[in-house]
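Bug #77: duplicate submission created two jobs. Keeping one. Sequence:
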Amino acid sequence: MKRWISNTLIVGYLSVLMYGVFCHALYYKVTQHPGMYFIVWDMFCGWSAYETRTHVVGEGASGQFYELSPGPWGTIKPHSDLDRRHYDYSGLHSINLAMNTLRQTEHEPMARLYVVEEAWPRKYNLPDELWAHRYTEPKDLQSYYHIRGTYAPDGQPLQQRPSLLTRLSQESLMDNPRLRHDMKKGKPFYAVDPSASRGGVIPVGYELPTDH
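Kept job's structure:
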């Protein structure tokens, strides 16, 4: 009886494991159910060495800047102590928070809306005592600010950019002399961003080598 139970558990475990590998490899229903998180093999591959925060800002017609998220009624913290806007790492939904604040408040006419990403190395999150034990240099936290998106007053996208880490990765690739040489032999085309949240097609010019 014990052997039958142990064999059943082993077979069941391996079956679920293989199903998770299959779903991950073919991207099959990986987000169908919250339970898929426990069997899809991702190994926290989205983690990075940088901490990020999202700021939603409105520029009034007078040149005054306003914080549009969180709204004047307070914050919503779905997990831990972070406001919900900080969970929008893709930068697709923060503008909706800005539009909700504008609809529910009295304000001067807006000229532009911005979604700004703030990033800093996560090592600076260490408490001062642990920092002193690990590092010899003083703890000098420096944040980097990067505009993720510029929007019209009605929320229509005017310009969208990737995250700071993606931008740095792209710049490191473009600093490659061989790639720059290949670009001169190619011809431009338009890449459509399918993740644009508000209907607009955001054209981005690229160069594609023609001899590969």
